[in-house]
Amino acid sequence: MSRPRQTTGAPLSNAPAGTQPRDLPPHPRPHATPDRTIHMIGNSHIDPVWLWPWQEGYAEARATFWSAVHRMDEYPDFVFTCDQMVLLSWVEEQDPELFARITERVAEGRWVNVGGWWVEPDCNMPMGESFARQGLYGQRYLISRFGKPATVGMNADPFGHSASLPTVLRGHGLDSYLFLRPGPHESALDDTLFRWRAPDGSEVLAYRIPFEYCSPAGSVDGQVDKALGALDRSLGDVMVLFGVGNHGGGPTIANIESIHRYDRMGSFGRLRMSSPREYLDGVRERGAEFLDGLTTWADDLQHHAPGCYSAHSGIKAWQRRAQYALLSAERWAAVTAVHDGTPYPREDLERAWKQVLFNQFHDVLPGSAIEHAYDDARDQLGEAVSVAKRIITRAHNTIARQVDIPQDTATQPVLVFNPHPWPVSTDVELHYGSHPGAVHVVDGDGRAVVSQPTQSRAATNQTGRGALVFRAEVPALGYRLYRVRTEAEPARPAWSSGAPGALSASGTVLENDLVRIELDPATGWIRSYLDKRTGLDVLRGVDGSAHTQVCDDPTDTWGHRVVSYAWAGDSMKVARVVVRESGPLRARVRVEREWGASTLIEELLLDHDSAVLRVDVTLDWRERAHLLKLRFPTALADPRATYQIPYAELERPVDGAEEPGQGWVDLTGTLDGRPAGLTLVTTNKHGYDVSPGAEPSIGVTAVRSPVYAWHDPRLLDGDDVYAYQDQGVQRFSYELVPHAGDRHAADPGRRAALLGSPVRAMLESFHAGALPHTGSFASDDGGPVQITALKGSEDAVDGPGGADLVVRAVETRGEPGTARLALPLVGRTVEAEFGAFQLRTFRVPADPDAPVVEVDLVERPLAGAGDDVRSVAPGSTPAEPAGRAPADEPPTDDHAATDALTTTEASTPDATGRPRPAEAPSADDAG
């Protein structure tokens, strides 16, 4: 039986444990104290959703923040570090008294806000624009409430970090970054402190949190011991994080008292309650020689929990849909704000974006939360999509009512809207009021458009709905008028974009003038994909049985300690192959497979003028603790793998490792000594591998079905009942893009965007209007520099719609060059130089006399930048650089926005063999 320690009145020496007196007087540390300062960072990592619903996280934020404020009242040297701005917003709306106390402590400098993002998101799967919005809304929140933004980035708990994040962090005004994973045992990077460089050259000072970001409620000695064992002790001064976390809690009295005790004892060195900013400022004060000597890491920070790239297909699909919907809504809202004076729906978009950002949290988007959390995620993302759809529908109707559509009672007018700031050529499936006879489609000038009937979604004659698919050529961020003519197509019509070419389909062959694709009837997969233009066949003789690989997968939800899912598996059995459509626009072959209780349907679609095969997938998965890989074996030699990542691309080893990716993965090598390759473009999927062997292949993890929120090393109890992920039907699409060694020739990034965010067709009525039957509001010209965002400014302005344009663009190929961003909406073109993968944002006022201003991702003007930016007004010579302040002689534009709409004309075929519309020269091009 233990007894309380007896006190004698003698001076206290070492007191590492047991009942301790509080507030011991200062005392010189022993001379043998290690010569280093350990900056103890008091924090509380709060997972707003994980093993609990968000409503519980909402309450925990308040409880934890009160605890932090009370510790500040008790200990004058205590400093609290806070990230995830959503938590502050929750406290602000539910407890004004607490928020006022926090505001006081921020002003005092003892409550330190870091991170600057709305949440700690998954740092691999969101689009680049979502990362941009994390800091846009997070930093603007901090500025509006506390008068200052964060300067240190922090994502303590996510499971990996994309190589392009330094670009985004610097765009948010964050010069440094704290993270935990991957640990030194999970990466080739051993360093604790290093310089992290993005593909565009942006750098941040990065610090890997040693051991853990949270600690037990008692003494911190164990936390410090393990942290010192994990970090680079040659650094001298270091940071160690403490405080009860995950479900909140924060630093405890016992934590703080033990820091004081061990500082007095000199056990670990000098212990100082501090902030990341204070520590990192001290690092920078060591000088250029020290900083230059740090390791420079120019790669991803991977891998931890690669199962999260594919866990819970639903949240991946809902997220992608919501992100695309909001990007489209912003564009159309900005168009009608400037063009028509419609108030820019800034508050609606912010509310919707925050729902999307919240559900990118690193236990929601990765699929690692409890089952019921996804009911809330589905509802919240559904709200975001609904907001976006209302905005888009209003904008399209605002534009549509102004388009001149003369009456022709033998036609049904159709307006097709392109949400992308580049011209697109795409197939549009249209449902319309049915007509008992033949119909065909014409453009606004009455010229025939290639079309064909397709199966209607309506299986009733009650309301009479017909369905057809037609080729639409739509200008950049614009619209085009078509008509469904209720009569048979003439024998020799005048064609809008060329007559249909040869196209044939059977159960074993799909062929047009560009490619011949042969299917193996035994496997239902491709055994030859001959490009007639080059003579290359990148799938020549491949083993089609490898296309579907079903494996038993007893790994936990996260996929802890998994290196690869590229294991040999069972092939799904072919049940049926049937030709569903055979031209003239497209051929469609349906391949049905089955395994166990599950079915896989792949519908292969080949257009008459395309070398690209599109596949629409319907998967009905009924297997527990199994996974399905879709594999794409090739005949390539010397393969190299490149993945799309947010705002860039990244080459990775061909080693079968499970890797995160965005919308495309490329495998390039040689075929018979000639350059050749295959690009896989996908929707909704993020887990990939590129594997070596006799037939180098791309693999995509189509589905995993682990138990919800099951964390190894816990073993599942056979007497319990568990819920398994991804039971039921899911749909996604992919494209196979063969090439002759240049993956950029078919522009896979734009293909992925169009596949994930198709054009919208709406039935319209007859009416007079001032707008022509085709028009464009903005264009990046489809070149290496791609517009990723076109939106209204976050700061309201006087003038039509209350918003200026904000245009963001990124160089996509790693090739520096000059970009020309045409903005007929405001009657000007912005010209600027872009470095490799450089991301730039411009605020373009609707007032043509106001200068274009380069801004950061928070939409703050960039000092000393933009000297190369030129604004070209219609009918003028290139203007002086825009700079940071109004020019002495700003460009003028006496044309209204309506007058600046551009028309389109057909162009020569692009690399896929499909004609793509090109914008006719506008007034901006004159001179």
Average pLDDT, rounded to a whole number, is 92
First-residue to last-residue Cα separation: 96 Å
Number of E-type strands: 46
Our estimate of the beta-strand percent is: 25-35%
**What Rg do the Cα atoms give?**
30 Å
- Shape label: globular
Which strand order does the major sheet show?
A: 23-24-25-26-35-32-31-28-29
Low-confidence stretches: 878-927
Query: Number of helix segments?
Result: 13
Q: What are the defining features of this structure?
A:
927 residues, nine-stranded antiparallel sheet, 13 helices, disordered C terminus
Short description:
With 927 residues, the chain is an alpha+beta fold. It is built from 13 helices and 46 strands. Helix 1 crosses helix 2 and helix 2 crosses helix 3.
Can you describe this structure?
A hairpin with an 8-residue loop joins β42 and β43. Helices cover 20% and strands 29% of the residues. α1 crosses α3 (96-108). The chain has 927 residues and is an alpha+beta fold.
Spell out the blueprint of helices and strands.
Layout: E1 37-43, H1 54-74, E2 80-82, H2 85-94, H3 96-108, E3 111-113, H4 128-146, E4 152-155, H5 165-171, E5 176-179, E6 193-197, E7 203-208, H6 221-230, E8 238-242, H7 253-265, E9 270-273, H8 276-284, H9 288-292, E10 296-297, H10 313-340, H11 346-358, H12 373-400, E11 411-417, E12 424-433, E13 440-443, E14 448-449, E15 451-453, E16 465-474, E17 478-485, E18 503-505, E19 509-512, E20 515-520, E21 525-531, E22 548-552, E23 573-582, E24 586-595, E25 598-607, E26 613-621, E27 626-633, E28 637-645, E29 648-652, E30 659-660, E31 664-671, E32 674-682, E33 687-691, E34 697-704, E35 728-739, H13 748-756, E36 760-763, E37 774-776, E38 785-792, E39 805-811, E40 817-823, E41 828-834, E42 839-844, E43 853-855, E44 870-872, E45 904-905, E46 918-919
Parallel strand pairs: 1-2, 1-8, 1-9, 2-3, 4-5, 5-7, 6-10
Antiparallel strand pairs: 6-7, 11-17, 11-36, 12-16, 13-14, 13-17, 15-16, 17-37, 18-19, 19-20, 20-21, 22-27, 23-24, 24-25, 25-26, 26-35, 27-34, 28-29, 28-31, 30-33, 31-32, 32-35, 33-34, 38-39, 39-42, 40-41, 41-44, 42-43, 45-46
Helix pairs in contact: 1-2, 1-3, 2-3, 4-5, 4-11, 10-11, 10-12, 11-12
